[in-house]
Amino acid sequence: MSTTEANLETGLPGHYGPYGGRFVPEALTSALDQLDAAFRAGIADPEFTTRLVDLERDYTGRPSPLTRAHRFGEHCGGARIYFKREDLNHTGSHKINNVLGQALLAQRMGKTRIIAETGAGQHGVATATAAALLGLQCTVYMGAEDTRRQALNVARMKILGAEVVSVATGSMTLKDAINEAMRDWVACVDDTHYVLGTVTGPAPFPEMVRHFHSVIGRESREQILAVEGRLPDAVAACVGGGSNAMGLFSGFIADPEVQLRGYEAGGDGVETGRHAARFAAGRPGVLHGARTYVMQDQWGQTVPSHSISAGLDYPGVGPEHAWLHDTGRAIYESVNDSEAMDAFALCSRSEGIIPAIETAHGLAGVIRLGKELGPDSVIILNLSGRGDKDVATAARWFGIELEHSEFGASIELSEGR
Amino acid sequence: MSPTGVGRIGSVFAEAKSENRALLIGYLPAGFPTLGESVALVEAMCDGGVDLIEVGLPYSDPLMDGPVIQQAVDQALSNGATPQSVLTVVKAVSDHGVVPVVMSYWNPIEQFGIEAFAHELRQAGGAGVITPDLTIEEGQPWIAAAGSQELAPIFLVAPSSTNERISRIAQVTQGFVYAASTMGVTGARDRVSNMAPQLVARVRASTDLPIAVGLGVSNGAQAAEIAKYADGVIVGSAFVTAANTGGVAAVRQLARELAGGVRLAR
Question: So what's the ipTM on this one?
């Protein structure tokens, strides 16, 4: 089911069946129209696309490799597991793909400042990086809870010259950072572009962010055909807002024989209520400008999510995922904290790759999936980010004693602001 | 006086016009700080001379609101505010002889069920609903549901709206057009945006509906300034601040000052 088909179903642009759309203050409508026009003109303009492709190659380091995970695969029922190595991109995750595209659009629109929300800090770091590269001002909104658990990324953003605003309202996580970034954008829309970091939000963000990440799916498709001579049986990814998953899925949506599998955060377990499993425990509603699956109470108040992974700790999900879920084209399951951390350790020790904790949810899913599909199956997992930022969290989880100095310093840095 | 919501809003604007003054519109969230206190606060607004009251439906993610209203709705939610609280406050306002409309972000209405919400609001004496994050493109089902109960669907225009959009918004709006005076969130400002007169003039060119200006108004002098060119003056955060600092008495006092302001101008 392609985006175009989904749009045709309602006749409205920016919709995926009943999902997506634009639920925003009127003050933002003209900026979204401007963005939509700039996006469509940009991707049709060879000068723009050449600039982006050049940056992807020379700055990000694309194409990212497709690595066969032999030893990890032994724990996945012997399936042939491949990692799409977005962790090797400059800044350490897939996030840079979208940010470079949007930052170039910001420049094209004559905006001099970019703002972003961030959960794990990866999107914030990528945005601060692009701002430095292109000479734009940058402000990043981050939940106060997340500045604490992702202190290293806070420091990275500051080193890159970004202003980091710690958001102490609501649940003090990603959802509240998005609220604050939207408020900034409404007030400063003349000179500011909001680089939304995932495939949600008001149209055209879901479509645009997917477009800039579709390079993941395109490369993966070519790479797997080259090495296996056939399409994979399944492609898999963790799903917070869902941008890394949408990037990978986009290369295979039109191939019905390729299963699409997404793994959302089960936190302490879906049954405990402390999780971020929107498909398991949410229902359709409107959040942050789009209709999608939302964790909410009976009155439509957003329920705070919970996950050991800051990047998956979000009560909404991209609207195209909601549509892929309802149509059955993609299957979503939840992975709880402990299962994800087991996979985190296994990947580190069997492959020599320390993944981001977000990615570890996808890894845990692939362990299940490989056993389900069997030893002849071929599965691609989007290894969406590296785990450097998560070392302190992981050390606490596994009871690893740390020398006081190094981590003490980074924690002070986050709490001092 | 017409019994429908749309008719009641029309009447109250017409009455103010016959007195050669602007209408005073006040906002407070339902259930802030508690349900009982919020009823007393809106009654104080009525007594102080507010002509039309926006009863806010507290929502967890109020992305068009500044810190003052954010904190107020957080407090209302932690004290158990629900859509039922909104209906209770709406009824209290209506029983006091003042016209109530609801101000709500979209998701709580969608989750309540749009037909059910329109029905219950009419039963409680509500006259319309302001929906700050519902675009007219997404608003068709709601416009139909409100229409079936003769409630006014009230949409916002902003300084960034094109004339073409303003005209489309005015076509589906009933009651009055809400002109957001500035690009930004709710909250008192030292000076009311200089974009407001121009925006009102642009709206005026495409509709005969009354036009009310909101965002940033906090005192009688500012109300008087807006009343020179707009049909209604909307005050929100300043009422919340008054409630926080001086309770019922301060809210009544602020209402009197603003009611004086909207009568000074012309």
Answer: 0.95
